[in-house]
Amino acid sequence: METQVKSRKKKLSLSKRIVNKIINKDTLSLVIFISVFLAIWQLVYMSEILPKLSLPSPLSVGQTIIELLIDFTLVKGTAFTLWRLFLGFLLSLTIGLIIGLFMIKFQQFGKTMSSFAVGLQSFPSIAWIPFAILLIGFSDFGILFVVVMSSVFSVMLSTYSGLRNVPPIYIRAARNMGAKGFSLFRYVLIPAATPTLIMGMRQAWSFAWHALIGAEMLITTLVGLGYILAVGREFSNMSQIIATMIVIFTIGLIFDRVVFVKIEEKIRDRWGLNQQKIEQ
Amino acid sequence: MQFKNPYPRQKVSLSLKNVSKQYSQRNSETNIVLENINIQIFEGEIITILGKSGCGKSTLLNLIAGFENSYSGEILLNGKPVKDISPDRIMMFQESALFPWLTAFQNVEIALQMAKVPKNQRKNIVKHNLDIVGLSDYSNSYIHQLSGGMKQRVSLARALSLNPQILLMDEPFAALDITIKKSLYKELLDLHEKTRKTILFVTHNINEAVLLGDRVIVMSPRIYGIKKEYVIDIPKDQRNDNLSIKNIINEITADLYDTV
Known about the structure:
The structure holds 2 protein chains of 2 kinds. Chain A is mainly α. Chain A is 81% helix and 0% strand. The longest helix of chain A has 38 residues, at 181-218. The longest helix of chain B is centred in the last third of the chain and has 18 residues, at 178-195. Chain B contains 7 helices and 10 strands. Chain B starts with 11 loop residues before the first strand and ends with a helix. Chain B has a domain at 95-163. At the A-B interface, helix 9, helix 10 and helix 12 of A face strand 6, helix 2 and helix 4 of B.
């Protein structure tokens, strides 16, 4: 049954497959959705319910986006913001994984730490900013600190619960086959916990993203998307604000859809969480 | 208790001497599970242990596998006391304990890796064992793509690939439907014919116990141990629809219900 499906797939030419991939139901509905949204915006703009300075037209926002792209403000801002995001996320992953592993290794510590982590996970990221400014100052490190503090606990908790909830039968079978210590960990515990870990990473990424923009707005370093937003507010430049918001929205969407959803789907497929089985 | 050695020249594989097991409860009472179990299993034999749930048959298997270490008495494998968990006593579980993130091939391969079989030998061993359970065509299938019966066959291939001295089977076919069960009985017996592995098979299904076992050991929760042992000396390929097998099944059924 599987081979039949595969061969049918192969029969489609490459160009047709690409076209099929781009033009499908999902993209079509997305295009309609965005068009309707822009149309409503245009209508509100033309009705002059709101003063034109507070709400620019979609067209002028589009122009601003192009202008900001051409003079490299947006490109530079996006580059810096993404760099900080990657660095902060990477730090969170490393620290979160290590502490999560310690929580598994030392049970009492794990118990105490997990209740702390739950509290800190829901701690508003913006509330870390005054602390970061006084502790570290107006610098990249201050921003990174806020990003890490906002996302590290998700990684920590997902590591902890992912490993704790590995079905005991896998561990039994593996130990029976001779695995212990590191090999048990490497070959069974980590792969078995991967779906939970990926969910935690996705959440951590989104927390890091929220925290980063906030921190860039308040911890002034003269670069970054958050800083462009803050400048836009300073000069009452609504077009610039909306243009930057659109960029921020797009980056978030792309990462979530392209990176995390892809990885999650791949794992779900492999584990058989999406499919029915081949009959014998 | 009657006792007859069906393989007089064979050597003893596993022997249990006065094995007892009890759990201590919070209110300082003890909960006896097994008391004075004596079993001898000869090399190449299939022993089935039959009993209702709660008679301690799974506990017994866990003790032999080394999953639980606190008991009194002696458990000897080839004359040496068993210690801890080891690949020379492989357990097969009721639900397949295969890893869903690996293919059938990789599932068998990782077992060899865990048991520290040299790398250059692994591929051949995996191929051979998937072949003898008839699943070479499904090497690259993920576990969820296999039916219940196929999963247990992969488990069996995984267990056999480690070449254990005794195979412990904890109701491995209990969750399967009757036609698949029947084909697996035949397959297990064929494999046993080829490999002459010593097998200790725990079940609550009387037919299964009588079809597969050289001897059937009936356990009862009331006496925390072995009620009776039946030697079944009818060739295994003649056991279907055999009158004396039916008589034995009736006898064991009466025995089992008597122990409620």
